[in-house]
Design a protein that fits this description.
This protein has about 270 residues and is α+β, with helices and mostly antiparallel strands. Helix content is about 60%, strand content about 10%.
């Protein structure tokens, strides 16, 4: 996969002035804090009856600044440490959110999926039919059950973050599901090359092509039950703090973006128990 749906923080290169300045901007507040702390901890030195001498904050800031100029690698090390801490905190928050919403995430009878219903590992994907990364992830997602000898099933969660026609397409897919054509409709919608192709007319054309009764589909799209099903998926995504697509969930692991290796790692972890 060429990239992820979300932009990753890139570790700055030491020979990049632009990134170095960005790193300094991130570190500057830390310098001030360190200076204050060092002033507070610096012992007073007295000689005979002379007044104690303490190191002033300005002197400490100069010393720290000179050290960083001489050892610029500490900026990179600090940013790496900050990023690692942020990732650890995010992972912990994700695990807590998954635990609080586990049944809705993995055990709803209304969910559509591929692979054996009793597969030991479930991969949940949240997606939008206008999400380019979701489209590019589809071949990978489709192959998961077979690739893992039917030990994996994939659950599809409609998450139309772009609204408008994305929401219409999501309702159409769910309505097609009432005619046992969900997956066929899902694939047809994902296979559209351009988002401009996704129109009301095109949705009906695709439905007809995959054998869906279009009139019934349109009627079901207006049903309270189907709209509630979609609303519940969106509320679940919000409860999981999911802000983009695709979003994958495996066990207690959340994988942001089109991170195929991240999904593989999570599946391996679950299979190994």
């Amino acid at each position: 996969m060429d990239g992820h749906a979300r932009t990753s923080i890139v570790t700055p290169k030491r020979n990049s002035p632009k990134r170095a300045w960005k790193g300094i901007d991130m570190i500057r507040p830390l310098l001030a804090t360190a200076a204050v702390a060092m002033v507070a901890m610096t012992p007073a030195c007295a000689e005979g009856n002379k007044a104690p001498v303490t190191m002033e904050r300005a002197e400490l800031e100069t010393i720290i600044h000179e050290y960083i100029v001489t050892h610029p690698e500490v900026i990179e090390e600090a940013i790496i440490a900050l990023n690692a801490r942020d990732r650890a905190n995010a992972a912990k928050e994700a695990q807590e959110a998954i635990s609080q919403n586990k049944d809705q995430l993995y055990s709803l009878d209304t969910d559509h999926f591929i692979g054996p219903a009793d597969a030991p590992v479930t991969v949940v994907e949240f997606f939008d039919y206008r999400c380019g990364y979701c489209k590019r992830s589809m071949p990978f997602v489709q192959e998961l059950p077979e690739k893992y000898d039917n030990k994996v099933r994939v659950v599809f969660k409609e998450y139309p973050i772009f609204g408008g026609i994305s929401e219409t397409a999501a309702l159409a897919a769910l309505a097609a599901g009432k005619q046992d054509k969900y997956y066929d409709m899902h694939v047809a919608l994902m296979n559209l090359k351009s988002n401009d192709e996704l129109t009301e007319k095109k949705i009906d054309e695709l439905a007809k092509e995959v054998g869906v009764d279009v009139r019934k589909m349109r009627a079901d799209m207006q049903s309270v039950a189907l709209k509630k099903q979609l609303d519940d998926m969106q509320r679940l995504g919000h409860a999981l703090n999911l802000s983009g697509t695709p979003g994958f969930y495996v066990g207690d692991t959340a994988i942001e973006g089109a991170d195929e290796q991240g999904v593989r790692n999570a599946i391996k972890k679950e299979l190994e128990g």
